[in-house]
């Protein structure tokens, strides 16, 4: 069980930590220094690399999470904080799938055709959705750790 939990938390660190860095630090730094074409090309490159790690994290998170639920005896035998975690987790995965297959794909096409206002608008959409997933991710960590400690 500790082995599964280790990889579960590692996946959380990579996904949520990566979103925190992108949203809170890289966005401000890139906005201050780079003009739109370079800034948008940078984000295209950053997302292409980061989203590979997110896919890996999503797969590890779901496998380890549901393996732990199975070892606890199934969803009827785990406490409410695990139900909430699974619910929030599925919400995060759905938002990521939308961002990856819809928003990021449109963003890439607009960057490739050098449509800077269009790609800027798509980047704003991705930023809002990543921000939403960051808030859900941090709330899920709080639910997992504090809910578990309180025995909820
Ligand atoms: C998607 C489905 C998910 C399932 C089925 C799941 C399931 C679980 C289970 C069964 C545990 C062990 C609980 C315990 O031993 O008390 C756990 C631990 C944990 N989960 Fe998840 N989880 C999921 C998603 C997430 C997500 C999205 C996050 C955070 C963004 C997260 C963060 C954590 C953390 C931090 C722990 C360690 C809690 C502790 O031991 O104090 N989980 N998860």
Automatic annotation (TrEMBL):
Domain Copper resistance protein D: start-end pairs: 46-145
This protein's record includes keyword Secreted: no
Superkingdom to which the source organism belongs: Bacteria
InterPro entries (UniProt xref): Cu-R_CopD_dom
Transmembrane segments: 6-29, 50-72, 84-104, 129-150
Keywords: Membrane, Transmembrane, Transmembrane helix
GO cellular component terms, semicolon-separated: membrane
Name of the protein: CopD domain-containing protein
